[in-house]
Design a protein that fits this description.
globular, six-stranded antiparallel β-sheet, three-stranded antiparallel β-sheet, alpha+beta
């Protein structure tokens, strides 16, 4: 379910955001969809499609779902809003934990779609698959990081639960992660 949320920041605001709730396991998480602005008249009371500027209203109490917002803006594919070269690839980060018989750890790299203005974000057809994670395990006995040319790298989707690909070199894994982000 999508809804409008207001927020005060350091005594300034309110700032209005379009958010949705998603249940992960036993917990409910709030996911930020778009920044809507500061105009209180535009968002006061109940939010409608007209008040959000995303098409006609079918009911004054109905808060539009983000997919409806995208359809109202003639939703565009990601390739129409940014190029593959603009997909952001982070620096590899290593987290380790020393244990009695070795070292446990992972090397991870985040691959994300570029930052989009709220107008561009609302024009997306699909807001899923905005990032992927490239990772490999640290050698347990020696604690050495995996080599980038070794075929030990894996790609995971949005919430690190969706396995995308495995047994790849680092460069192949980054390209697979870009494919995943671009395909959303």
């Amino acid at each position: 379910m999508s809804y409008v949320r207001s927020k005060m920041i350091n005594g300034y605001g309110p700032y209005y955001y379009l958010v949705k709730s998603e249940r992960v396991g036993g917990k409910s998480r709030q996911i930020h969809i778009a920044y809507l602005g500061k105009n209180a008249k535009q968002h006061s009371g109940t939010a409608t499609k007209e008040s959000l500027g995303i098409g006609g209203s079918s009911s004054p109490n109905e808060v539009p779902k983000h997919s409806e917002a995208a359809e109202a803006h003639d939703g565009k594919d990601k390739s129409e809003l940014y190029s593959r070269n603009e997909i952001q690839v982070g620096k590899p980060s290593t987290s380790t934990r020393k244990m009695e018989k070795g070292t446990e750890g992972k090397v991870k790299t985040e691959v994300r779609q570029p930052s989009l203005s709220s107008e561009k974000f609302q024009k997306l057809k699909n807001t899923e698959r905005t990032h992927a994670t490239v990772e490999a395990d640290v050698d347990f006995k020696t604690g050495a990081k995996p080599k980038k040319k070794a075929k030990v790298w894996k790609v995971y989707g949005e919430k690190n639960t969706e396995f995308v690909a495995g047994n790849l070199t680092y460069d192949e894994a980054v390209e697979k992660a870009k494919d995943y982000v671009e395909s959303g």
